[in-house]
Amino acid sequence: MTAKHKIMVVGAHAGDAEIMAGAVVAKYTSQGHEAVLVHLTPGEKGHKTLTPEEYAQQKMEEGHRAAAALGAKAIFLPYKDAELPVNEEVKYALADIIRAEKPNIMITHWKGSIHKDHEATYYIVQDAIFYAALPSIKRELPAHGCYNQFFAENWEDPYEFEVDTYVDITDSYDQWLKAALEYELFSGSISSFRYMDYYKALAVMRGCLAGTKYAVGLMRPKGAKVHRGSTLPVRVL
Asked: Phi and psi of 3, rounded to 5°?
């Protein structure tokens, strides 16, 4: 890869971005590219013993450590788990971050989800990308267009999700695991869902289909062609 890329991954909750796209982030940052993880909420309402306020603080600390382990940085927006609004305030807040960070690759949730915050994130991101790119929308920073978008594979976002992009993550697999395990959530002590078993198995299965040891499956907006390779198919401006 000769062009310089910057990846932005937008997750509904701290941990979503890392578990579904952290291996892609690690692959790119290890080659000199940049990445930022944007968490719309901490995902603070699921701990067995901590209050939401206590768990939010813990998840923000975990999020910064996980981002550092991936060679990225983390940004948190001030919205609440299970209460993420789909309104102009949050869309413009994200649009301002897009203008400030200037990514050329966006990865986020697919809309076919069982989780309301994940579905909300999809719609927030679509409008934020649109608002960020329009020069006629006057904000503190000038417009910035992000023209390469991908939807990540997430166990809670399965409806009508069809992988058309396979990225070899064999070399970044171990780094991704280390980063994900910065979260207590993925240790198995909070949720009964076996996150790490699921996503490790998913990486193996996608690797089988891609002809590599491990791979991540992504989906592009409708109309794109199937892609298998060691990098993301991106438009370079």
From this structure: -75, 150
DSSP, collapsed to helix, strand or coil, labels residue 3 as coil
Tokens representing 216 are 């991540």
pLDDT digits (tens, 9 = 90+) for 6-57: 999 999 999 999 999 999 999 999 999 999 999 999 999 999 999 999 999 9
Q: Which residues of 142-167 are buried (b: 16+ CB within 10 A; e: fewer)?
A: ebbebebbbbbbbebbeeebebbbbb
- Domain borders along the chain are 6-222
Q: What would the CATH number be for the domain defined by 6-222?
A: 3.40.50.10320
Q: Is residue 229 over pLDDT 80?
A: no
Closest CA to 105 of 25, 168, 31: 25
Largest CA distance in the chain: 49
**pLDDT tens per residue, range 120-171:** 999 999 999 999 999 999 999 999 999 999 999 999 999 999 999 999 999 9
Report the alpha-carbon distance of residue 127 to residue 99 in Å, rounded: 13
Region class of 71: left (phi > 0), else alpha (psi between -120 and 50), else beta: left
